[in-house]
Amino acid sequence: MRQVSSVGLLLGLMALPAALGQRSSGSPTQHNRTEGYQIVSFEWEHVKDPYIIILWILVASLAKIVFHLSHKVTRVVPESALLIVLGLILGGIVWAADHIASFTLTPTVFFFYLLPPIVLDAGYFMPNRLFFGNLGSILLYAVIGTVWNAATTGLSLYGVYQTGIMGHLDSGLLDFLLFGSLIAAVDPVAVLAVFEEVHVNEVLFIIVFGESLLNDAVTVVLYNVFKNFVELGPENVTGIECVKGIVSFFVVSLGGTLVGILFAFLLSLVSRFTKHVRIIEPGFVFIISYLSYLTSEMLSLSAILAITFCGICCQKYVKANISEQSSTTVRYTMKMLASGAETVIFMFLGISAVNPAIWTWNTAFILLTLVFISVYRVIGVVIQTWILNHYRMVQLEIIDQVVMSYGGLRGAVAFALVALLDKDIVKEKNLFVSTTIIVVFFTVIFQGLTIKPLVQWLKVKKTEHREPKLNEKLHGRAFDHILSAIEDISGQIGHNYLRDKWSNFDRKFLSKVLMRRSAQKSRDRILNVFHELNLKDAISYVAEGERRGSLAFIRSPSTDNMVNVDFSTPRPSTVESSVSYLLREKAGPVCLDMQALEQRRKSIRDTEDTVAHHTLQQYLYKPRQEHKHLYSRHEIMHSEDEKQDKEIFHRTMRKRLESFKSTKLGINHSKKLNKIHKRDRGQKRRNSNVIPNGKIPSEISVQDFTLKEKDLEFSEAEENNDYETLHLGKGVDFLADVTKQNFAENSTGDMDHDVEMTEYSSSDDKLPSYASDQLNQNQSVSETPHHFFPSCLQMPWTHNYYSLENRGNISLSTVSEYIGSCDPSIPDLFWEAGTDSNNKETVNSGYGSEVSYKSENSQEENSLLIPEGLEDSYVKEPQEKKILLDVQGNYRSAAARRVQSRRSFHRPKPLQHPKLQKLASLPTSCHVPPHSLEQEETQL
Amino acid sequence: GRQWQELPPGKRKKGERGSGFTSEQIEHLHRRFRQLSRDQLTIRKENFDSIPDLEFNPIRAKIVHAFFDKRNLRQESSGLADEINFEDFLTIMSYFRPIEMNMDEEQLDRFRKEKLKFLFHMYDSDHDGKITLQEYRNVVEELLSGNPHLEKESARSIADGAMMEAASICGPDQVYEGITFEDFLKMWQGIDIETKMHVRFLNMETIAHCY
Q1: CA-based angle A441:A119:A56, to the nearest 5?
Q2: Which tens digits make up the pLDDT trace of A180-204?
Q3: Do B83 and B122 share a domain, yes or no?
Q4: Does B17 touch chain A (CB under 8 A)?
Q5: Which residue has the higher pLDDT, A918 or A595?
Q6: CA-derived radius of gyration, chain B
Q7: Is residue A153 predicted with pLDDT exceeding 90?
Q8: Cα–Cα distance measured from residue A68 to residue A82, given in angstroms and rounded to the nearest whole number
Q9: A58-67, A168-177, A487-496, A783-792: which range is least confident on average?
Q10: Which of A122, A156, A472, A790 sits CB 3.0–4.6 Å from A875 for a disulfide?
Q11: Quick one: B25 and B72 in the same domain?
């Protein structure tokens, strides 16, 4: 009943009628008494427990919203402190209503439900390199530092107690040591909560945070040992017991770590095979890591170490294995759980404090505890740092030491441990509890409040959040290899030596076992950075397109200018603008970290600047950027003059053609191609009915032309020699034919349309497709073999569609890229996709491009090629070719198209910008089959 | 050749002054040098083959090359030396000394420049003072060659992307002809190399073996 009314009170707090509490408090009993069938019954007791829990979580979450209404407050006061204060207030209200503390943070709830998500989050997102790079320092602080803190605090308190200042306490040396051991440990939750808002440099952060995570083993052991000793009684403590204690430290810590690693291995292995159960994929991450926590708890090992190392060890493989959506899900869920748990912990710390039953005040004891933990922390840090600096490459300076000392926050772990004490054995439990609460509040609120100004005042080096740079990554990689080589040569086993050996081992064995094969290839940090940059670029390009589009609209109202129709300029349309609007919206919330959000905001602003700048460039003078593009392909290119541009354009095309040819001729490829062909066909058939409108083609890239890499995982397709022979050798010819056709069409090309659209409607078996190449007539003449090859089969639209697993698909630049990069008057590629009404899969692929040279009117338009007269049985008939007048449809994927056509020129994988794709298909797709989930990859 | 007896004290002093190593470190490096050179006075390229750990280094050739690069040996001429003596060996090693506490700004700057110069020379394989696109591509290709799944062409396009990024820092005009050392410095502006280009030379026995 008391709880009922307090819940009512809570509801009252939440701006509901206060009377509700009164009413509800009376109801359950009444209903129980009534007889006969009840249509509606009020079953409070039935739902009571989960109801209350959920309500508290709701309150805590709502509180968070309220705090963040005012940035001024959250900037100054750490959220943890605010939550504690809120907890105090709520606790006060509950107390006032009830006169009993019904809600406290119980150790069971804390250790089983609240702590694991926070620690898992920490482990899973641990910057591994940084962590292992500083592991030595972290371990020293965590082990020696914690033992030092525990011993000195306990002993000093006992020493002072002997002088009689504290009055009489019913406890001996062991009790003091026990208290020392639980109050000694720096708390990961508190440290994380405060340091996340401070943004000190990463080395400093990882040391303090790593210490707080790893000292758990020490704390657990010390705590258990002393608790045992207290139970045994001082007289029974022998040397053997002490030795046992020391041994148990190693068992507990190493055992916990081992359990974590084992489960990480298991988790990685499982995630390798979740390809077909994508929906529950994220679940494994949580379940297995939680299992590691429980297992080590069961074996009385360090559970925190277990789950931390589970997260640390599995992250590389799991992140590589699971799909992008799953990875996003994992990220969000983990962050949500962790920050929810953190919120609840701090609030309940506040609430728990409002309970006169636990308070025993002893000024001397409490004050001295505060003094001792601070002083000994400082002394410990200074001594250890002095030792460490003899061995560290990057010295920890005085300022760092100050922050490290000051950052020694105590938190809920200490509180939960002290609450676990048995009052019959530890007589002064209440004093210990109250002191712990005071210490926690003091460190979290006072130190948390002041650490930010302190950091600013001391001018501690902060993290600079730089954009990842390709050069930096490359040079960084070079350095890694150089350093390990130097260590090899100079014959030392140093940090680099070990890392190098480990990464060799990882690459040779671990990754092979734990990673999907498709993931193995794409897992390269440099490649990732490259992708991120590309994505960023693409996003900004879309935004720019929007801007430019409207400008173009003002400047050149219509298509009246037949000679110089700028196909690359989209018409301003609502679709378009909403596309980029959505894009921005979507780009936003990927990261939960405040700093990153800020960064994002900034980058959007930057983007806008760039956009403006670019617009100017586009219209005022010859854009520099275009030269850069040019540059990337042509070493020889420096001139700005038009003729040369053209010349280079030609040359590139020729080169391109050659490289294309050689690719196609490569024997190795033929098999692959064939395989892909089969696979695509097969999958196409399977999926043809569920593919939503407009999704496929927007993803297709011309790049696939090169077909450099294919999903090796997909090996079920048997090779069929017939196909092989058929396809082999014809591929090249095809291109030539394409060009020929292309140029034939050029002469008749319809210039009136923005895009020349060609539509294929294909039945299930036939791949509609494409291929387009923008070639200058001059060169296309040269090679003209007369076979025809249905390139659609090897250059599948579907390839990308199904290639989500195939993330390592590294294929490269194509003709369109050249086009995109070669001339300021960007010729553009257009893709269009649609599905016709009878749910047959149709791909409209439209391709139009235009090259306009300023002086000469050498405008060309290349339209889509239709594989006409195909003998191949798979593409039976070239479907009717018609001009798609559906302008609206055009715009639909305008963003995707443009991004693709321009930015693809240095992208190693085919475009996989799900945002763009998704957006591209937004207006049409309402029915999203489960498969299509796979499409929506997020790259960030 | 002549057999090594013992490192003469005078020579040791000199090395100490020039390279900033402690005499203990020099002794260890000297022992290693003798191990590598098989007690000869000089090391040739082939001697590096005896280090098994080096085998898997994707840029192994470039690193070994750097040891014989006269520019790194602080000789006026450029080109390649056939063999290097212990002093040269120390000189190369001294590029990787960690920063010392008592260095002032100017020293730090010089220190940094020297380290970057080493890297620059490694990239600039034709000794013309510029990193051309082709050279950069080669480096990137080698760097990424450790990953068997990565195609050459993607390495190329990464190099292209990196070059473009460089162009956005140094201006496109210079980059067309190649990145000069000044450009290279500009690219490194604001990037911390404290941890990246240092090796802790321990005063320990050499542990790694070679055959």
Answers
A1: 60
A2: 999 988 888 888 888 888 888 888 8
A3: no
A4: no
A5: A595
A6: 19
A7: yes
A8: 11
A9: A783-792
A10: A790
A11: yes
A751-770: pLDDT as tens digits: 444 333 333 433 344 333 33
Q: How far apart are CA A296 and CA A255, in angstroms?
A: 8
What is the tens place of the pLDDT at every residue in A778-823?
A: 333 334 343 433 333 333 333 333 333 333 333 333 334 433 444 4
d(Cα A760, Cα A753) in Å, to the nearest integer? 18
Of residues B159, B153, B33, the one with CA closest to residue A478: B159
* Residue of B65, B164, B186 to mutate, interface with A, max A Cβ within 10 Å: B164
Model pTM score: 0.62
Task: Please report, for the domain that includes residue B50, its CATH number.
Answer: 1.10.238.10
B116 touches chain A (CB under 8 A): no
Which residue is listed with tokens 């049985």?
A873
**Could you tell me if B95 and B165 lie in one domain?**
no
Alpha helices (runs of H) in A360-411, residue ranges in sequence order:
363-388, 398-406
8 Å CB contact between A922 and A576: no
In a domain, B8, yes or no: no
Average pLDDT over residues A370-388: 93
Same domain, B33 and B52: yes
What is the predicted pLDDT for the residue at A241?
83
Q: Give the whole-angstrom CA distance, residue A528 versus residue B144.
A: 13
Show the tokens assigned to B198.
């240092």
| A740 — pLDDT class (breaks 50, 70, 90) | very low
**Cβ A489–B36 below 8 Å, yes or no?**
yes
- Location of structure tokens 């002191």: A435
Please state the rounded mean pLDDT for residues A386-403: 85
Please name the residue of chain A whose CA is at the shortest distance from the CA of residue B202.
Answer: A492
| Burial of residue A760, with CB atoms counted within 10 A of its CB: 0-12 exposed, 13-18 middle, 19 or more buried | buried
Q: Is B9 part of any domain?
A: no
B180 and B159 belong to one structural domain: yes
Does a structural domain hold residue B150? Answer: yes
pLDDT confidence band for B173 (50 / 70 / 90): low
Work out the average pLDDT over A129-146: 90
Check whether A208 has a pLDDT greater than 60. Answer: yes
Question: Across residues A324-345, what is the average pLDDT?
Answer: 90
Does any domain span residue B4? Answer: no
3-state secondary structure of A843: strand
Beta bridge pairs of residue A850:
A861
Q: Are residues B176 and B129 in the same domain?
A: yes
Domain that holds residue B95: 14-99+198-210
Residue B109 sits in the same domain as residue B187: yes
A527 touches chain B (CB under 8 A): yes
**Is B22 within 8 Å of chain A by CB?**
no
**Residues sharing a CB contact under 8 Å with residue A704, sequence separation 6 or more, in sequence order:** A795, A796, A799, A800, A811, A910
- Measured between CA atoms, the residue of chain B closest to residue A810 is B154
Select from B97, B154, B165 the residue whose CB has the most chain A CBs within 10 Å, as the one to mutate to test that interface.
Answer: B154
Q: Which two tokens stand for residue B144?
A: 């990424």
Question: Which two tokens mark B117?
Answer: 């110069």
Give the least confident one: A73-87, A178-192, A245-259, A765-779: A765-779
Q: How many folded domains does chain B comprise?
A: 2
Among partner residues B93, B161, B210, which is closest to A906 by beta-carbon distance?
B161
Q: If you measure CA to CA, which chain B residue comes closest to A203?
A: B195
Token pair for residue A262? 């084992």
Residues of chain A with C-beta less than 8 angstroms from the C-beta of B176: 631, 635, 637-638
B154 plus B81 within the same structural domain: no
Residues 199-258 of A with CB under 8 A from B: none
